[in-house]
Amino acid sequence: MSPEAQLLNALAFAATKHRDQRRKDAEASPYINHPIALAQLLANTGGVTDPVVLQAAVLHDTVEDTDTSLEELTTHFGPQVAAVVAELTDDKALPKAQRKALQVEHAPHKSPQAALVKLADKTCNLRDIATSPPADWPLQRRRDYFDWALQVVQGLPAVSPALRAAFDAAYARRP
């Protein structure tokens, strides 16, 4: 199967899994817009062509936020994609504060593929919060998110100067 077909299969899978989910912005935009934005940022700004990274980008929240299992991802997309998604998946059984602390702690140990997706994820999240923040997020919560995202990104292995510049530009819009 071609890399393009693999990516389209991942997009279709993610769209199905996230079909009833909405973003937290005031417009309640479709959730699938977020993973698509990551893949676009990786490909268009980062020049990423690795099909594993692009598939992991569109699938990165499926295990964490839907009924998808890592075994299901392995079956449909192979062990490499599933392994990258596993690196990006928070344990929802843990309290939110602990999950956030673990993202900072684990950032330096990410594989280059997972680091690319994590960097794109934080960049897209900052862009979204700056342009269309969650309706119930006061200013301090938005600022705290920006500062926490910076801690995560600062710990990541250096993987793409262009993507890091995109993150820095997004961070510069800190409310």
Automatic annotation (TrEMBL):
InterPro entries: HD/PDEase_dom, HD_domain, MESH1. Pfam families: HD_4. It comes from the Bacteria. Residues 31-126 form the HD domain. SMART domains: HDc. Transmembrane segments: none annotated. This is Bifunctional (P)ppGpp synthetase/guanosine-3',5'-bis(Diphosphate) 3'-pyrophosphohydrolase. It comes from Ideonella paludis.
